[in-house]
């Protein structure tokens, strides 16, 4: 039996090709689709800590915060309307990602990116002009529809466009864009909160038009992927495009493998029901559990509500926004560790190291908050050293996420699915991600109010659980061509019992197995 979780053998294919300037620029432009996700994550927590925003839309929260209706700091932001403002976007993203699967498969990846950018821009305009909570929620829903399309298509686009040797680094450009979006949003919140007259929140929310226009224009000028062209029957264009992005003429082997995968894909009448076939059990398991675990790292507690969280643990409003800027800087800078190491050290090592680092930090933060706030949430005067310690360990936690579960939670699912189920499986991945993002956003403030500092221990438990899952069940996928990924499951100690050898010798077509149940 091979070592637990590690594929000891796999595809021996090594497609020729170079990391061309063309494909690098193309992937960089496509990766900007992550900006809209990151900007929204960063902006949401910032505006909900602005007094002018709270007073206009959530006066009960404003009164709790300033008139001391409660001395319990854990519960000052507990508001169903406030959590609905944050979480409604992710429910919309869940629904739109299911529709995006059909658009992505039938019409190409770039059209989904275009729809994503246009819908997100519409939502930004509505939010910036909001007069009441209903307009805010409508804007959030439009933002969510755009986000679902973008998150469904961009990771697939990057994984299909990149040479397999550099797939990890180029795909993580999506996560890097998310972190840059978060940082930009935090910086803008910090300065817009200082605007006299209390209308800075409109600039924060309306600023989402900028990243949405970037991905919209990018989608208009980007080429589609050879995989998508072949899937839609455009073989000549796909061959020409593959020569351009690889920088060589000798692309026959890779092209033939893409055609073979397309043949298998075209034999599938319904990719959704096909997902339930036994041979796709490892793929479906990863499509569900990786985004599930990614959200239960607790990262969105930090990212959604960083200013709110820092304000809750005793920082002033301005100090809370600045602390969020600091964590945003850490997020961006440490993502480069993953870009550098993912194709050198592998996915598993980063997953496991990041998990251990996050778990330790969550335990320390829980102990620090528990020691000062206890269970009644009244800490009294907080010393400066205490604030520094809390921010320091939150930054170390963010760093661990930034080079592990953050980028790899998007990379690994996007690279393991065979073409015949790729769009549907990616929609499952995005839908699960958005569902649990919605749930975390919806219940976090209530959980903080009731679990208090124990909330961080709650997430630490799940980080331990997900690290064990990776160690036992996730094979290494670095250096494997995307259309040859089936090999890693065949050699895995557990998953090989489900994955049959459906691929025939090179040059022959793939015969799909009709039977099998989940």
UniProtKB/TrEMBL annotation:
Residues 26-478 form the Major facilitator superfamily (MFS) profile domain. InterPro entries: MFS_dom, MFS_STP/MST-like_plant, MFS_sugar_transport-like, MFS_trans_sf, STP/PLT_plant, Sugar/inositol_transpt, Sugar_transporter_CS. The chain crosses the membrane at residues 19-39, 81-99, 111-130, 136-158, 170-193, 199-222, 284-308, 320-342, 349-373, 385-406, 427-447, 453-474. Coiled coil: none annotated. Keywords: Membrane, Sugar transport, Symport, Transmembrane, Transmembrane helix, Transport. Its main location: membrane. It is a multi-pass membrane protein. Gene3D superfamilies: MFS general substrate transporter like domains. GO terms for molecular function: monosaccharide transmembrane transporter activity; symporter activity. Pfam families: Sugar_tr (PF00083). One of its GO terms (cellular component) is membrane. SUPFAM superfamilies: MFS general substrate transporter (SSF103473). It is found in: Membrane. The keyword Transmembrane applies. Belongs to the major facilitator superfamily. Sugar transporter (TC 2.A.1.1) family. This is Sugar carrier protein C-like.
